[in-house]
What we know:
The protein is an alpha+beta fold. It is built from 3 helices and 6 strands.
Amino acid sequence: MVDTYYQIPLKLGEMIHQQEHEKCSLSKSVATMLHLVLITNLGECKFDEGFGCEIWEHDFENIANIQLYKEKLRKSIKQTIEKYEPRLNITRFDIQIEQIENRVNNRRTKSRISLYVKGTLIKTNEVFTYSEQFFIGPLSYML
Length: 143
């Protein structure tokens, strides 16, 4: 049971009726946890107020110094991932922030945050990579 990883979302109805729940690989489980941490706002998880990501704290702010913001965000997200995903040893972590003009909505500008994580899975020493993009202001994300 120690090496069993379950797909999210959990289908509790199936588990209550002793039906088999879908399982996934260690790599998929780590990727799912990273996604969950990244899309969760700080304070949203009542049993652990620190669970979540600082990206959403600045969703609609005008950022005066993009380099300072980027470094603060990079450090915060990396520390959060290291805290909540101990199965991963991060070897490379990068964040890019770009201004994107959204032509569909009357040329409104959004910020796109691109995140890249590379590391090794501690249990198997397997190389692991993960990337995701978020659009902030208004809230949306893209895989």
